Amino acid sequence: MANSADMDRLLQGKEVWNSWASAEISSGRTPKVDFSEIDLGQLSFKELVFPGSAYFVGTTFSANISFVRATFRAFAHFERAVFVGKASFIEATFMETAEFENAIFRDEAEFGSVSVNSLSFFAGASFEGDTSFRSAHFRDPVDFGNANFRNQAKFDRSKFDTHVAFLNTTFAGPVTFCSADISSAKFVGTKFEAPVDFSDSRFGHVPDFRITSLKVPPNFHGIAIEFATDTDHRGFLQRVLRRALQREDSASFRRLRQLAGEVKDHERELMFFAQEMRAKRFYETTGFWPISLNAAYDWLSDYGRSIVRPLMWLAASTIFAWGIIAATIPSQGALTPMKLIAALVLAFSNATLLIGSDKWALREEAFTILCGLCKPSGPHFGLLGDLLAYAQSGFSLLLILLIGLALRNRFRIGGGG
User: Fold this and answer.
1) For 148-183, b where at least 16 C-beta lie within 10 A, e where not — what string?
2) What are the pLDDT digits (tens) for 155-181?
3) Nearest-5° angle of CA 152, CA 54, CA 67?
């Protein structure tokens, strides 16, 4: 129940209240204040300092209420509080846990630039007016489970350092997370009944949208999702191939790929596909050869996304073959510039066997320069050298196909899930 001494002190104004709070803090005391289960009406808590735990459990704020730039040095309890008018917590600081479970905000709720250093609980809260958490900073986990946002909700430029859970949360109005910085988030069971915008947001771990209901596909333009790895795993291969942090990460990327495909956002669809394939390693993709093929597809072409990567591999393999041919020339004599050019012609034609109709004449001339009167059809560089030529041709053909795949993906119009 409410403490009458706290009420008397509040009515004397901010200066009296904060002088008392400062004296208590200097003395090392942390007295609690209690305004529970009463109607506070037209009062202001703007810029007040609460030296100990603050209790507003079941309190009714029947008019607009301000906690702007208030400082809660210990636990802040607003469980089951009812805010009839506009509630403003702009730039408020919560140094310990903030409890708003089952609170009701019947008008606007402003938590812009709020700072919370410990746990935050908004589970079961009802936000009936426009709600803003713009530029809010949460340093510990936040729980919005079963909360209900009936109008517009804004989380633009908010920062969640650890984890935020929107389990079974309902957003009836538009939602924006533009330029938000979120370490980890779960939206499992969340209902988005209006557009949701994640443009230019950053996630330190893949967000979980499984079993999420969206009436309108989300906007993922400019989104950045880091591939979180299992740094505690000590296996050498798992470290080199970047084992995903959690088994369900591949399913989370798969869900994001599906959502991007629904809005024909092919660039994001390809990005999520690549992350999904990486996340499958050691969980869904197991065994030496399946994992090796997965990694090769990644390294050679970024899963069909990169044109530059296979081009670089193609150039590197051609230069390597050039060096092998130049080092194994069967004829005697000095290595002349003409012989180096001839070796380069052979290396290049090995890489492009399907391109050009005049390459056979060029190859014959190159063979003549390198080994005199020997026939182009016979072995000239030893068994290993000739086998390497076949290997180069096969590898180059694979790289050319990957370049074609990347070009097709780059200029593909639309795309499905």
Assistant:
1) bbbbbbbbbbbbbbebbbbbbbbbbbbbbbbbbbbb
2) 999 999 999 999 999 999 999 999 999
3) 40
Distances in whole angstroms, Cα of residue 211 to Cα of each of 42, 149, 382: 43, 19, 61
pLDDT of residue 361: 65
Mean pLDDT for 92-112 is 97
Please state, in angstroms and rounded to a whole number, the distance separating the CA atoms of residues 48 and 69: 8
Type of residue found at 217: P
Q: Is 254 left (phi over 0), alpha (psi -120 to 50) or beta?
A: alpha
Tell me, letter by letter, the H, E, C secondary structure of the chain. CCCHHHHHHHHCCHHHHHHHHHHHHHCCCCCCEECCCCECCCCECCCCEECCCEECCCCEECCCEECCCCEECCCEECCCCEECCCEECCCCEECCCEECCCCEECCCEECCCCEECCCEECCCCEECCCEECCCCEECCCEECCCCEECCCEECCCCEECCCEECCCCEECCCEECCCCEECCEECCCCEECCCEECCCCEECCCCECCCCEECCCCECCCCEECCCECCCCCCHHHHHCCCECCCCHHHHHHHHHHHHHHCCCHHHHHHHHHHHHHHHECCCECCHHHHHHHHHHHHHHCCCCCCHHHHHHHHHHHHHHHHHHHHCCCCCCCCCHHHHHHHHHHHHHHHCCCCCCCHHHHHHHHHHHHHCCCCCCCCCCHHHHHHHHHHHHHHHHHHHHHHHHHHHHHCCCCCCC
Buried b (16+ CB within 10 A) or exposed e, 13-23: eeeebeebbee
The fraction of the chain above a pLDDT of 70, given in percent, is 89
Residue 312 above 90 pLDDT?
yes
Token output for 399: 């790289």
Which two tokens mark 317? 């393999």
Q: Is the predicted pLDDT of residue 271 greater than 50, yes or no?
A: yes
- Answer for the pair 48, 26: CB distance below 8 angstroms, yes or no: no
The 10 Å Cβ neighbour count of residue 97 is 18
The token pair at 114 is 């709020």
Q: Which residues contact 15 (CB under 8 A, 6 or more apart)?
A: none
